[in-house]
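Lab notes, practical 5.
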Amino acid sequence: MSEDSTADQQALFTTAQAREHQEGYSDRENREIHDHGGIVRDEHVSRAMSIRSIHYDPLESDRPDKMPGQAKDLEKHRQIRLVEGTETFRNALENGDIPTIKHMVGDSSQRADVSGLKAIGKVDELINGPAPVVVVLGEMGAGKTDFACLLAQRWRALHSGQSLLGTNIQSLEEKDRWVDDDGDVQDGWIPDYGTLMEWVEQDGDPLEHSQRPKLFIGDEFSSAASGTGKQGYETRQKMAPLVYKIRKYGGALIYIAHGERSIHPMLWRVGTIVKKVSKKKAVIADSIRNAELADIHGQVEGVPPTDFRYNTKEASDWSWSAYGDETDDLEADEAAKMTAIWTVIRCKEEGMTDRETAKFVPYSHGWVNSRWNEYRNDGLHTETLGKVEEVIG
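Output from the prediction step:
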């Protein structure tokens, strides 16, 4: 083979590899190229799309729940990319521009390999089975989000077909589109509790309708690093109804949390706790006592990176109210009341004080004391306890 031929082959290889890098499939994170780069060749249109992508923030709109997580998924953005990309492809065919064609087609064989496959078996054990719940803990930089995405990647592989992945991680590329109650197609970014409930319930009553496999990745609902403050307080109080509803509809949950202290008892009662202690190692436990891992029963070493694509610098947003609603009716919800009673009984059985228990319910420590006495002394709330256990068990 001549030197010129070798150079041409290398150029085509590099062009295809560039497309895979652009799509987020290379070892190095793509920090420079928007999705329309090289596809939209009109300089002014390309620049306008880049500026829109940089400044796009769905939380600034009147209805964030109706907006996609990223500008590239806006309908107008997709339409422009399709029109311009078609022209780019037509011109390339007419002029024999093979590098451009190779860039548009790409080459999936150039994607980065996943290493550490020995750990995949243990990862599968965590996420396999009916309606799994996994809580991922760890210090900043330990790879919590990456591990959560690896779990989701394996869940999807184990649930081939019409499975749905939703998340409040705005930049996650692998989330699935779904149709909301208004008939609008959403991109799978779920920024608030109201939208999550609509997403979970989209297939109807589970007693009457079959449910597609659904997985929600919740990334740190509390914005404070310690899980304290108003948002951390809301998260501890309102997590139980969320878990209850997801389990009721047969959904799976992966929740990325700040630390042991912020974890609602229902999470570790129904799920598994995984603490990332380093990029490659995770400890597995079944419960939390005195704000520390308890009942540790294993670890995963050689954890491979996920193939899922997301912005590692993203600070995910979350609202416990539906966008557009001035009031929060979660406290009046039957699930909230039932799970609050369940929480009181289970926390008190663990030896927690009324004040400690009140941190996990939307009521006062006096309310906690009254419900506990009604259960312990008067035999009340056993039916409620049984109903909740039936759903989450």
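Observations recorded by the TA: Residues 3-110 form one domain. The chain has three domains: 3-110, 117-301, 333-392.
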